[in-house]
Write a structure and sequence with these properties.
Strand content: 25-35%
Structural class: alpha/beta
Low-confidence stretches: 2-46
Strand order of the largest sheet: 2-1-23-20-19-18-4-21-22-3
Number of strands: 36
Helix content: 10-25%
Oligomer: single chain
Shape: elongated
Mean pLDDT: 91
Distance between the termini: 42 Å
């Protein structure tokens, strides 16, 4: 965690609800295999059930369960989400929290309630939320009760005195209890500091705060990581991944250590990577582990230490979540992770729920992240324990008071994903529909999950379309709902169109279609695409689409005159078939059975062509 919490809160508050406009390229990797060996899911009839879990900002519903049913698709809805499991993106490793030393001590003090709480958090049964990914600290974090590392013996470069004994009372017993519930939980480990004797230019707290790694001890520090992974393995704990340093550009936390990008490259290439390899350890190395406002740190390390680095990790106390897509696009064969975000006590349930769901659970995964981790799993009613100068206002996912717990907003933020989207899932295609932010996944057992949030200020009725089936649902402002269903989509009724997306149409003459703001007949002669050249693809029902620009709909005029964009509502003349062409372009056919023609930009556009050729084909978003 950063130490300047007032600035962090300000920075976090200034990050606007994310506009998820980053176009994600289709993942070239195959979907994750099903570890159970299942080979498919039987088709089921229309009207199949969908489980719904709802949380409202006013807390009147907290993961409240209900159900809706798919039915044959019919009717229109301007807010239509089309889920297409044929388009897949990144695999998903899991959702969860950081299990700090303080969290472990509080969980271990739950007495007779400990087993029930741990099963609720990490189990996958009814009434359990299935946390599937944990981040832990190598040595103390700022939410430990005191500073420590696993080897404070100065000059012990061979790590003869390395010891996990500091963790024997609370942390290791709790982690082992968690693994007994979920043996496959993924664990990411990261240090807040190297042993203090390895550092130079420290700034306080007996060397725990600030400073950087002395180059003379790079090799010793790499050995420290190897010893740690081996020692945890001896305890029955597999470390899936490490980052070399938590928040490597933050010198103010306690503990903390600065590690510049070039230093991390050198450390990984010359010490950490080779030592892990020579020790026969397959633990992933993940770069950076800090805010998205310095993406060059991540790309520098991934670009220059790629032989050892699996990918890069991010926090969002500054920057924009869309940066994850920029980093992915720069190195598409490397992974992206989201590893920390706090909730500041006392918290604002409605505001925190909306921001974290929209920006992280939805936003990070729509921008290629394989996981989403909230910060602290547990704290007491006074936001303790923490180190001297550590975070004093970090609200836990749960508050532990003696042997009882209170479930806070972080619990529900994570649960809306972790309970339903399981490790091995893949993200699948779904479009944003108005104020309904959303993301969709397909689990390895074939079940589908859609997480939807109403980021607007009023209730929204929307449609979820899947193949030739759909259901409608009304979501109150600020609420989040997770939908889960099984089966395979029906065929024949889908449009294949990017329902809900805003597109441009480029004609055979390399000019853009212009709506003319509804004041005159449409043309295809704009050299650049601005407001009048942007159209939203709207579900018109029964497999048809409509095109909307500037709040008006395109009309074929039934082929009797040039087409216009001046209709306030959708009637038969405003309905079209979206017909993909073999070259990746699209033709658009009116209800009169004729195709829209660009007329090569030399005259007003029409919907009069019986067949489709060059002038009737359009490039999308080119």
């Amino acid at each position: 965690m950063k130490i300047n919490y007032s600035l962090k809160l300000l920075a976090t508050g200034l990050i606007a609800f994310v506009l998820l406009t980053y176009a994600c390229k289709k993942d070239v990797r195959p979907p994750a295999s099903d570890p159970s060996g299942a080979t498919g899911t039987a088709a089921r009839a229309a009207t199949g059930p969908v489980s719904v879990f709802l949380t409202k900002g006013d807390k009147s519903s907290l993961l409240a369960q209900s159900s809706v049913n798919f039915a044959p698709d019919a009717g229109t809805n301007a807010n239509t989400i089309t889920v297409d499991e044929g388009v897949t993106y990144q695999g998903i490793d899991g959702f969860g929290f950081t299990l700090t030393g303080g969290s472990a001590s509080l969980l271990n003090g739950l007495g007779g309630n400990k087993s029930a709480v741990l099963n609720e958090l990490f189990g996958t049964g009814s009434g359990q939320i299935g946390i599937s990914y944990l981040r832990i600290s190598i040595g103390a974090s700022d939410l430990s009760s005191s500073d420590f590392t696993y080897n404070q013996t100065a000059g012990d470069v061979n790590m003869n005195n390395f010891s996990l004994s500091q963790e024997n009372t609370d942390f290791l017993p709790i982690l082992k209890a968690i693994l007994a519930i979920n043996p496959n939980i993924k664990i990411l480990a990261t240090p807040w500091t190297a042993p203090t004797w390895m550092k130079v230019n420290t700034t306080g707290n007996n060397g725990y705060t600030g400073g950087s790694l002395n180059t003379a001890y790079y090799d010793a520090y790499a050995r420290y990581f190897v010893k740690y992974i081996q020692a945890m393995k001896a305890q029955g704990i597999t470390i899936d991944a490490i980052t070399p340093q938590n928040e490597p550009l933050n010198p103010y936390n306690n503990p903390s250590m600065v590690m510049q990008a070039n230093e991390q490259v050198n450390f990984i290439n010359n010490n950490l990577g080779p030592q892990l390899q020579n020790a026969g350890l397959s633990t992933k190395i993940i770069a950076y582990d800090y805010n998205t406002d310095v993406p060059s740190y991540a790309t520098t390390v991934v670009g220059n230490a790629g032989q050892y680095v699996d990918g890069s990790a991010f926090h969002l106390y500054a920057g924009n979540i869309g940066t994850l897509t920029d980093v992915h696009n720069a190195y598409p064969n490397k992974n992206v992770y989201f590893t920390e975000q706090w909730v500041g006590a006392p918290g604002n349930f409605a505001g925190d729920l909306g921001w974290h769901i929209n920006t992280l659970i939805i936003g990070a995964t729509r921008n290629w992240s394989r996981n989403v981790l909230e910060w602290n799993l547990a704290a007491d009613p006074n936001n303790n324990p923490h180190t001297n100068g550590g975070c004093s206002t970090c609200l836990g996912g749960i508050t532990v008071s003696g042997t009882s717990i209170t479930r806070n907003v972080g619990y529900y933020i994570v649960a809306h994903a972790s309970k339903f989207v399981r490790p091995g899932a893949v993200r699948i295609s779904s479009n944003i529909a108005g104020s309904i932010q959303n993301v969709a996944f397909k689990n390895s057992d074939g079940s589908k999950v859609l997480i939807a949030s109403n980021s607007g200020s009023s209730d929204v009725n929307f449609k979820v379309k899947w193949g030739n089936e759909s259901f409608t649902y009304s979501l109150v402002a600020g609420a989040v709902a997770t939908f889960k269903w099984t089966g395979t989509p029906g065929s024949g009724g889908g449009t294949g169109a990017p329902i809900g997306s805003t597109i441009t149409l480029k004609g055979f003459n390399n000019q853009y279609v212009n709506s003319r703001n509804g004041t005159q007949a449409m043309t295809c002669n704009s050299a650049v695409a601005s407001t009048w050249e942007q159209f939203t693809v709207v579900d018109a029902g029964a497999g048809k689409i409509a095109l909307r620009a500037m709040n008006k709909y395109v009309s074929s005029e039934n082929g009797t005159q040039a087409i216009t964009c001046n209709r306030a509502t959708i009637g038969d003349w405003e309905k079209f078939d979206w017909v993909p062409a073999t070259d990746g372009k699209v033709t658009i056919r009116g209800n009169n059975g004729k195709y829209i023609s660009s007329e090569n930009g030399t005259q007003a556009m029409t919907c009069t062509r019986a067949t489709a050729s060059g002038w009737e084909a359009f490039g999308i978003n080119q």
